[in-house]
Amino acid sequence: MNIGVVGAGAVGSAVAELAGEYGHTVTGLADSGSSVVDPSGIDVATTLERKQRTGVVGDGDPEAVLSAAYDVLVEATPTTLGDAQPGFGHLEAALKLDRHVVLANKGPVAERYADVRALEAQSEGTVRFEATVGGAIPVLGTIEDIGPDQITAVRGVLNGTANFILSRMAAEGLAYEQVLTEAQDLGVAESDPAFDVEGTDAALKCVIVANVLAGDREYTLADATVEGIRGLPANALELAGEDSRTIRLVGEVRDGEVRVAPRLVPENGAMAVSGTRNIVQFETTNAGPLFHSGRGAGGPETASAIFADISRLDD
To answer: How many domains does the chain have?
Structure first.
């Protein structure tokens, strides 16, 4: 397929770089201030080298990609809350042209899910968004395959930054601020880590899961109960360890409710993943508990979920 990519950060760049490996052609790539478009396929290597060297991918207007020759628009701009712009506008433009949309941006399906589905219903295009939850882990695909009506709950560790911090605090007895600084130095945490450590990122992912499971109602971030890990004392982890338990930031969708908070879990249990790994548990009616674990973030990892969605569009 021909792919237009909006967003040239880690995920968008990885999609552009790996597209040929999956048999696709990138006909347009935009960052926040520029674009490059070629109906026969852009020179990805040259474009990404220019982005690294100059900060822009090309000389065109970013909006030019939206009307270019593509079959699928990959929306990989940063997640925004509330009106979910500009990601929602990009999705709307593509659907009005009867093109498919694959999202890495959580905003449209976490904050405007009903609007997304209404636009999709009026279009020949399809919206898919595996990459919005759990990076390389096939969370939404699993729900689709098993059937939402066969899943009674979904819970998991869904933010790698928070998990890295909690893992290091537990293993080394270090204070929150000390580990946060270490995470920022390693590039695991952003310079402003609020989205991750306050639980917002995990909550958005759980809201998306709730939307997929519900079918008959719309969830947004306002429907979630959220507590993060900012300022969690080291002695809380020490006390948990004395009882052979540890603490993880766990998100859960159950009985129509969405909750994210630090939870006590068995230190050798499935939920006690370490480092930046994520894990998701599905409670099912007939198959019992099912677990998926893997890398929940990263350019190539998230790109693999995007290409999985594109392959489903091909089916």
So the answer is: 2
Asked if pLDDT for residue 315 goes beyond 80, the answer is no
- Residues 147, 113 share a domain: no
Place of tokens 């995470």: 183
What average pLDDT score do residues 13-20 get? Answer: 97
Q: Which domain holds residue 160?
A: 139-295
| Cis amide leading into 289 (omega within 30) | no
* CATH number of the domain residue 212 falls in: 3.30.360.10
In this structure, are residues 23 and 91 in contact, taking their beta carbons and an 8 Å threshold? no
31-88 pLDDT, tens per residue?
999 999 999 999 999 999 999 999 999 999 999 999 999 999 999 999 999 999 999 9
Report the alpha-carbon angle 16-5-139, nearest 5: 85
At 194, the amino acid letter reads: A
Could you tell me if 271 and 209 lie in one domain? yes
Catalytic annotation, residues: 205
Q: Are residues 174 and 276 in the same domain?
A: yes
